[in-house]
UniProtKB/TrEMBL annotation:
GO terms for biological process: spliceosomal complex assembly. This is Crooked neck-like protein 1. Residues 92-389 form the Pre-mRNA-splicing factor Syf1/CRNKL1-like C-terminal HAT-repeats domain. PANTHER family: CROOKED NECK-LIKE PROTEIN 1, PRE-MRNA SPLICING FACTOR. SUPFAM superfamilies: TPR-like. One of its GO terms (cellular component) is U2-type catalytic step 2 spliceosome. Involved in pre-mRNA splicing process. As a component of the minor spliceosome, involved in the splicing of U12-type introns in pre-mRNAs. It comes from the Eukaryota. It comes from Machaerirhynchus nigripectus.
Length: 707
């Protein structure tokens, strides 16, 4: 800081002393930082406040004669030439030089400077613009035209040159010359705005036919010099502008022709909703409502749904304005149809989408359309022959057949059923529902032999329980009992473990009054080595004998059943049977059954079943027994105690303890010590409670002792 001040002071002294010798600056020995620091920002602020760097403006010079003017021009030109010589590529120096010469009315010198500059950089757009503007400013029209011609020839893609050139010719009233420039411009196939400028130029002079020809060249460019057809701007928006141009000038037939040409030009591969919306609105303005509907429907049938949102919206608005309820419903149906078409195209095996689609077309479309959609749907056969993949698919065939039967003739329905049954891989799996529906259809057509043949074929190819049951039910309705017997025999040969079939067969014989055959069927059934529901079969056999009032045979059946199983429900059912037999000895018999059951159940590990038996016995004694029998059954009832046992996890580790209830029966001699221990525990607990009560009330103890 001290050094800076010393230097500042030295400069001031040298300024004041003029050419005096500047004293030598002493070296700063103390290089420690000063207590108060000065930043660069503060130094700059002080310099600005003191205006140390501001120079006074140069004095104004007044030129009084020609010599001084020539001298000024010479010095100024020398300055410009020096600047250009230093850097020829800085175009701003050339432009300033030329503008200075122009200000002196030295037009020829200015032209020379611009020409020299163009030799340096002829691609500079600003240079051409300044050059041409100078000529126009000084009313040098031919020179300006020459410059514009050179500019558009050298740089034909610079649109600004063309705009300026055509504008100059139009301002001069040279319409033909401006049109000629536009034609030269159009040969280069410029951007859209250039074409619109040309069209607006012709419209300003009421040249509608010329504007129409320009539009034709705009969308389908035809070179006038080369006679070549080139697509320049064949966009939809340009076709629409062309049509609106015709409509604006009341050439409605021409406008319609333009729209039709546009639809034909783009075809079905490059359809755009904006074109059809504009076409429909044009026809709507012409009150051609039927044509509007045709346009909308044609577009909606061909444009994908995701690209036709605006089209749907405008069609809906149109129908609300000019249509009826049916038309609005058609729009909604069309929209949903598009949606379903997209879904089934994305995934042909999405059968739920096919169901929704078919439901839609059935409610609205004609029979041929519905049939076509059904054929498309059933053509998507599941690729894997596994039944779980076919469960949804088979309902397409079922719905198709029902539709044909209800809406069309029976011949097609039969063909549908037969085609479906031929398609199914019966060796791997089948659908009994399809066979049964086909048989029921033939019966409705009063063609019983074909129905029997179909069901017989199904049983021969792929026997199933459902097929047998359906065939038997059909023959029962027809009262063909001999056929039913044969079918039951075949059914039981196919599935001898099916208890329901045995029961139904026996019930049929019972209904027909052949009791011996029914009993024989039951005997055959219980003699089978493997049954799916033996308890149901035995119960049905027992109920059958009870209905026939064959009580001895029923008892024998119970005894035979008890030889196979000692289940508590069998004993209880046996006892209930004896109770309901209706004879005088029924109570002793019932009590005897309970006694036998109790003895048999002593070795049973499931104590809950033994408790169930005793509770059933107690209910019987409470209703029909004496005091002695009631007291005896009460003594047989077990004690319910709570126990704990240790749990183990799957890996063998300790999982804690759990509580459970156990039963101790007085009859079991092995459990006598447990009962004695339990009684002693109860007595000890009672004594503990009495001692605690005495400790809580000492006065009562004194009174009791005195007493």
């Amino acid at each position: 800081r001290g050094g800076a001040r010393a230097q500042r002071g030295g400069k001031m002294a040298s300024t004041a002393a003029g050419k005096q010798r500047i004293p030598k600056v002493a070296k700063v020995k103390n290089k420690a930082p000063a207590e108060v620091q000065i930043t660069a920002e503060q130094l700059l602020r002080e310099a600005k406040e003191r205006e140390l760097e501001l120079l006074p403006p140069p004095p104004q010079q007044k030129i009084t004669d020609v010599e001084e003017l020539n001298d000024y021009k010479l010095r100024k030109r020398k300055t410009f030439e020096d600047n250009i010589r230093k850097n020829r590529t800085v175009i701003s120096n050339w432009i300033k030089y030329a503008q200075w010469e122009e200000s002196l009315k030295e037009i020829q010198r200015a032209r020379s400077i611009y020409e020299r500059a163009l030799d340096v950089d002829y691609r500079n757009v600003t240079l051409w613009l300044k050059y041409a503007e100078m000529e126009m400013k000084n009313r040098q029209v031919n020179h300006a035209r020459n410059i514009w011609d050179r500019a558009i020839t050298t740089l034909p893609r610079v649109n600004q040159f063309w705009y300026k050139y055509t504008y100059m010719e139009e301002m001069l009233g040279n319409v033909a010359g401006s049109r000629q420039v536009f034609e030269r411009w159009m040969e280069w196939q410029p951007e859209e705005q250039a074409w619109h400028s040309y069209i607006n130029f012709e419209l300003r002079y009421k040249e509608v036919d010329r504007a129409r020809s320009i539009y034709e060249r705009y969308i389908l460019f035809i070179s006038l010099t080369k006679a070549v057809l080139v697509l320049v701007h064949p966009d939809v928006k340009n076709w629409i502008k062309y049509a609106r141009f015709e409509e604006k000038h009341s050439y409605f037939a021409h406008a319609r022709k333009v729209y039709e040409r546009a639809v034909e030009f783009f075809g079905e591969e490059h359809m755009d909703e904006h074109l059809y919306v504009a076409f429909a609105k044009f026809e709507e303005n012409q009150k051609e409502f039927e044509r509007v509907r045709v346009i909308y429907k044609y577009a909606l049938d061909r444009i994908p749904k995701q690209d036709a949102q605006n089209l749907f919206k405008n069609y809906t608005i149109f129908e609300k304005k000019f249509g009826d309820r049916r038309g609005i419903e058609d729009i909604i149906v069309s929209k949903r149809r598009f949606q379903y078409e997209e879904e089934v195209k994305a995934n042909p095996h999405n059968y739920d989408a096919w169901f929704d689609y078919l439901r839609l077309v059935e409610s609205d479309a004609d029979a041929e359309t519905v049939r076509e959609v059904y054929e498309r749907a059933i053509a998507n056969v599941p690729p894997i022959q596994e039944k779980r993949h076919w469960k949804r698919y088979i309902y397409l065939w079922i719905n198709y057949a029902l539709y044909e039967e209800l809406e069309a003739k029976a011949k097609r329905t039969r063909q549908v059923y037969q085609a479906c049954l031929e398609l199914l891989p019966h060796k791997k799996f089948t659908f009994a529902k399809m066979w049964l529906l086909y048989a029921q259809f033939e019966i409705r057509q009063k063609n019983l032999p074909l129905a029997r043949r179909a069901l017989g074929t199904s049983i021969g190819k792929c026997p199933k329980n459902k097929l047998f049951k359906g065939y038997i039910e059909l023959e029962l309705q027809l009262r063909e009992f001999d056929r039913c017997r044969k079918l039951y025999e075949k059914f039981l040969e196919f599935a001898p473990e099916n208890c329901t079939s045995w029961i139904k067969f026996a019930e049929l014989e019972t209904i027909l009054g052949d009791i011996d055959r029914a009993r024989a069927i039951y005997e055959l059934a219980i003699g089978q080595p493997r049954l799916d529901m033996p308890e149901v079969l035995w119960k049905s056999y027992i109920d059958f004998e009870i209905e026939q009032e064959e009580y001895e045979k029923t008892r024998n059946l119970y005894r035979r059943l008890l030889q196979r199983t000692q289940h508590v429900k069998v004993w209880i059912s046996f006892a209930q049977f004896e109770l309901s037999a209706g004879r005088e000895e029924r109570l002793p018999r019932c009590r005897q059954i309970y006694e036998e059951a109790n003895k048999a159940m002593r070795s049973c590990e499931e104590k809950e079943e033994r408790v169930m038996l005793l509770e059933s016995w107690r209910s019987f004694e409470e209703e029909f027994g004496t005091d002695a029998t009631k007291e005896r059954i009460d003594k047989l009832m077990p004690e319910k105690i709570k126990k704990r046992r240790k749990l183990q996890a799957e890996d063998g580790s300790d999982a804690g303890w759990e509580e459970y209830y156990d039963y101790i029966f007085p009859e079991d001699t092995a459990n006598q010590p447990n009962l004695k221990l339990l009684a002693m525990a109860k007595l000890w607990k009672k004594q503990q409670q009495e001692s605690e009560a005495a400790a809580m009330d000492p006065d009562k103890d004194i009174d009791e002792s005195q007493t």
